[in-house]
Design a protein that fits this description.
The structure holds two protein chains of two kinds.
Chain A lengths: L1 H19 L10 H31 L3 H34 L4 H23 L49
Chain B lengths: L11 H16 L10 E3 L3 E19 L5 E18 L3 E14 L4 H4 L3 E12 L7 E10 L11 E14 L6 E16 L19 E15 L2 E14 L8 E13 L4 E13 L7 E13 L3 E13 L7 E15 L2 E14 L5 E16 L2 E12 L15 E13 L1
Antiparallel strand pairs in B: 1-2, 2-3, 2-19, 3-4, 4-5, 5-6, 6-7, 7-8, 8-9, 9-10, 10-11, 11-12, 12-13, 13-14, 14-15, 15-16, 16-17, 17-18, 18-19
Classes of the chains: A mainly alpha, B mainly beta.
Chain lengths: 174, 415
């Protein structure tokens, strides 16, 4: 529920934000340049999507619910942002074809989506699960000890035995 | 001041090891391979062993002319060993007799033939747990003694009991161990009676003593095999005849680091302070040092070289407390079936009350050959030398000035 609200707010910001707020800043790019760059951004976002999907798969394999929830939340946001970016890219292509000034606005949407997706990627990497914090009777600490160490405990050191003497018996007539 | 039969518990482990070392020396210069033995319970194994030594001692005794008399010597050593390696409790027992037979035609040398022996028992309870219990008791009856002040040859009956309780809060990185020790050493005259002019020449059993000790040690293993150590110990020597030997009490405080420096190199660096306390006849204190460097390749080489500065209490009055510096080395090198060994030490003793000084040298090269898992043959040579200055008004004491060459071969079978 919270996730849906978060994504909705984010999408709302992206869709309505640049159009409703102020006039978008011009990028200084030509139409074809904007198209190339927008394509590049979308490819990058798809790569991030793949990475986050892999983390979801890892969390599932670890049976770590806390981590899975965290990464899933980022995944939903990345998917939403990617959808918005793709729609904006279509709008950008139409606007460039029409030589419409709205092209700048669509390009800005793609750029913002790409920035936010990159942020989601970082947050997904920072998702740590319950296993990072839970220490119980099942917790095992594995200490890797080099195999060529001497046996025994060298910290149980004691000095060598005192010198033993055996004075020869001597005759009383000396 | 010097070293002792008393670095109580700091030396407690050391004294315990003395008894074990005495037993081991009486038996053989090496802990040898074992046969199958008898199975005792789920984790126990009882072994029987027998050893015969045959060799020559160049100074079995001083004749009336003052000349050293050499003699052939044989040892017949039957014994048994029990090892129980349980999860909660581990136990070791080793006991043997040693009939030493002098083969000399000289009657006084032949009369040195005598039955000796030794036994040690140790168990360790809950050694992986938060609180453990360690017990050991070792007894030896031997012509060798750690007492450097006896000016006559004796049979030394030596028993040392150690009890330690290690507390390992938090998994074992920190270990605090409290321990106590009781030592009893009695003497019997051995061989011809001593020179009446000698300062401690009296019935040997007049020098019997008890010694009590306590130690508290804290050890923090900041790496798995490397630790910082701080310990304090106290000892109280109570002679049977206080007119012939001073009762001596002392304390020691030591701190430093011990353990592995690399996977093969180990080091010990400890320093501290020790003092005689509550002893009207003797006053004195000294700094303490333990420095050792070791090199170990598991199963192949074990080499150590070290230096100790310490003090000790001993029997008698004028010779009751001494300082000492000791440099030692030890090498074990396994070459297939052969084991090459070298032990040596140089100890410089300085008595507090009469300024008598002198070095004691000992060096023992040895080689073992494992013919079968249960059968070992070997040979060793020991050179010992002691020379001591003479206190004003005293004559030279033969027991403080002698040298000896011993060469022995042995065969040992363990079942």
């Amino acid at each position: 529920m919270n996730r849906s609200i978060a994504v909705g707010v984010l999408c709302g910001t992206l869709v309505a934000g640049p159009a409703a707020a102020q006039a978008p800043k011009t990028s200084g790019l030509t139409g074809p340049e904007m198209l190339d760059k927008a394509d590049k951004y979308i490819v990058e976002m798809k790569q991030v999507l793949k990475q986050v999907l892999q983390r979801v798969s890892d969390a599932r394999a670890e049976n770590d619910i806390v981590k899975l929830n965290c990464v899933n939340e980022k995944l939903v946001q990345v998917k939403g942002l990617l959808k918005i970016a793709e729609q904006a890219d279509i709008g950008l292509q139409e606007a460039v074809a029409r030589k419409d000034e709205g092209a700048e606005s669509d390009f800005a949407k793609v750029g913002i989506a790409r920035t936010k997706v990159d942020q989601m990627r970082v947050e997904a990497q920072e998702c740590v699960g319950q296993l990072a914090y839970v220490v119980d009777e099942k917790t095992q600490v594995e200490v890797e000890v080099p195999t060529d160490l001497p046996k025994g405990d060298p910290t149980d050191w004691s000095p060598p035995p005192p010198v033993m003497v055996r004075p020869p018996p001597a005759s009383p007539f000396q | 001041m010097g070293r002792s039969v008393t670095r109580t518990m700091a030396r407690g482990g050391r004294l315990g090891s003395v008894a074990i070392a005495v037993a081991t020396l009486a038996v053989a210069p090496r802990a040898l391979a074992d046969g199958d033995g008898f199975k005792i319970g789920e984790a126990g194994r009882l072994h029987l062993y027998g050893q015969i030594n045959a060799g020559y001692d160049s100074n079995a005794l001083f004749a009336s002319s003052g000349a050293a008399v050499g003699s052939g010597v044989m040892d017949f050593i039957p014994g048994l060993k029990l090892d129980v390696a349980g999860h909660m409790v581990s136990l070791t027992l080793d006991a043997n007799l040693d009939y030493k037979l002098y083969l000399s035609s000289e009657a006084q040398a032949y009369d040195l033939s005598h039955l000796f022996g030794g036994a040690s028992l140790g168990f360790d309870v809950n050694k992986e747990g938060t609180i453990g219990l360690q017990f050991s008791d070792a007894f030896t009856s031997s012509p060798n003694t750690t007492s450097l002040s006896l000016d006559q040859s004796t049979v030394s009956n030596y028993n040392v009991l150690n009890l330690a309780i290690p507390w390992r809060p938090g998994g074992g990185a920190l270990t605090i161990t409290g321990s106590g020790q009781w030592m009893l050493n009695t003497f019997e005259t051995y061989g011809p009676p001593c020179n009446p002019a000698a300062p401690n020449c009296t019935n040997a059993n007049e020098f019997n003593f008890n010694q009590y000790g306590a130690k508290l040690q804290g050890k923090w293993a900041f790496l798995p095999r490397t630790a910082a150590v701080l310990e304090g110990s106290w000892f109280d020597r109570v002679p049977t005849n206080t007119s012939l030997s001073y009762p001596v009490q002392g304390v020691r405080v030591l701190g430093g680091g011990v353990g592995l420096v690399t996977s093969r190199l180990s080091a010990t660096v400890e320093g501290g302070w020790g003092s005689v306390i509550d002893t009207p006849q003797v006053t004195g204190s000294t700094w303490l040092a333990n420095v050792e460097l070791g090199y170990t390749v598991e199963g192949i080489i074990d080499a150590r070289v070290g230096w100790i500065h310490d003090f000790a209490a001993d029997v008698g009055t004028a010779y009751s407390v001494y300082d000492y510096d000791r440099v030692y080395l030890s090498l074990r090198w396994v070459l297939n079936r052969f084991t090459v060994k070298l032990d040596g030490s140089w100890e410089y003793v300085k008595y507090i009350l009469n300024d008598v000084t002198g070095p004691i040298w000992q060096v023992t090269p040895a080689v073992d050959c494992e013919l079968a898992r249960w059968l070992i043959i070997g040979a060793y040579y020991t050179y010992s030398d002691r020379s001591t200055t003479t206190a004003p008004g005293q004559t030279t004491i033969p027991a403080f000035n002698y040298s000896r060459n011993q060469i022995f071969g042995y065969v040992r079978a363990t079942w």
